[in-house]
Specification:
322 residues, 16% strand, globular, 41% helix, alpha/beta, binds guanosine-5'-diphosphate
């Protein structure tokens, strides 16, 4: 597929550059001949509409990649519905409208695979959007993200701007959130496996039944796919970003345990929710650009584990052995 947006000499604003995805995008953009713009929370509060408008008018980016979001795992979504809906709607609306006012020509909005109906046919194609009820545990976040992709579509239709949306599958990797209460499954299991090893415990507790299936994509692969879309994709419809392969949570737990080491038995806490039974994206549209992931799940998990251990050593994460 040919390039529709040449990054050379462009000013690209990465909103949310401190997060797992944003920092991977910054790493990936370093290989392009473009200027990367970022703003710390102290410099720019994305919840403040006037501040975002001012910032955009002053800095005049040529493109915006929106990786800023309030994210969290299954329990965090369930506990903080107002934050997940309000913060995400306001931040994305400020960024999209602020970009439009400042005549930013290209916008890449990032959503999530949870925008799709709970019982969407698998693998989930982009066309499954709004064909059924959402998974209730994360519908707050999902509704915000659906509004974001629709807003990009609306600006595109009404004003002819090149605003596109990508919906990544479950991402993991360096920079992930390793807090057990709010994290997604990969960092949670990795941390729990290390804590079990440290305590000499023989069990690793996995939430739910272990039977749900999830697709995972290493964050540097995701960043590479997103920059590929930024350069080559220009269309009304959003694009799924995934690896095209999924595994059960039980299998994921076994893989994580084997990487961390320590001889643990996996036990299931069925008082915790399973969430959606399966969530595999149809990646035909993305793969049609020629893009493919580079990291196997095992390789990506090994890299994540190395990053995690370095941060434990530095004292950024304190492992509880109790
Ligand atoms: P989801 O993909 O939106 O459901 O988000 P999560 O990554 O939080 O959860 C994925 C699956 O992993 C769900 O079925 C969870 O019940 C399961 N899971 C198993 N153990 C854990 C854990 O320790 N933390 C989290 N967040 N999920 C877990």
């Amino acid at each position: 597929m040919g390039e529709t947006f040449d990054l050379r000499g462009k000013r690209v604003f990465v909103a949310g550059h401190r997060g797992m995805v944003g920092s991977a995008i910054v790493r990936r953009l370093a290989a392009e001949d473009c200027e990367i713009l970022t703003a710390t929370r102290a410099e720019l509060d994305l919840l403040d509409q006037a501040g975002v408008r001012r910032w955009m008018a002053d800095r005049r980016p040529d493109a915006v990649v929106m990786a800023a979001a309030k994210v969290g795992g299954i329990l965090a979504n369930d506990r903080f519905p107002a934050d997940f809906l309000y913060d995400n709607v306001v931040v994305q609306t400020n960024l999209i409208e602020g970009a439009f006012r400042a005549e930013v020509g290209k916008f890449l909005f990032l959503g999530s695979s949870c925008i799709y109906p709970k019982f969407a046919p698998q693998p989930i194609s982009e066309d499954a959007l709004l064909t059924g009820a959402l998974e209730p545990t994360n519908e707050w976040y999902a509704i915000a993200k659906i509004a974001g992709l629709k807003l990009c579509q609306a600006y595109r239709r009404q004003y002819g701007v090149d605003y596109i949306s990508a919906m990544p599958t479950n991402l993991y990797g360096p920079g992930d959130n390793f807090h057990l209460e709010s994290s997604h499954v990969v960092p949670a299991l990795m941390r729990k496996a290390h804590e079990a090893k440290l305590a000499g415990r023989k069990t690793l507790t996995v939430w739910g039944t272990g039977t749900p299936m999830r697709e995972f994509l290493y964050v540097d692969d995701a960043a590479d796919a997103l920059i590929c879309l930024l350069k080559t994709y220009s269309s009304d419809s959003h694009v799924n970003v995934g690896s095209g392969q999924d595994i059960t949570i039980a299998e994921l737990a076994r893989t994580v345990a084997s990487i961390v080491g320590g001889d643990v038995e996996i036990v299931f806490d069925t008082t915790k929710p399973d969430g959606t039974p399966r969530k595999l994206l149809d990646v035909t549209r993305l793969f049609a650009t020629g893009w493919r992931p580079r990291y196997s799940l095992r390789k990506g998990l090994e890299q994540t584990n190395e990053w995690f251990l370095r941060h434990v050593e530095k004292g950024d994460v304190r492992l509880g052995a109790a």
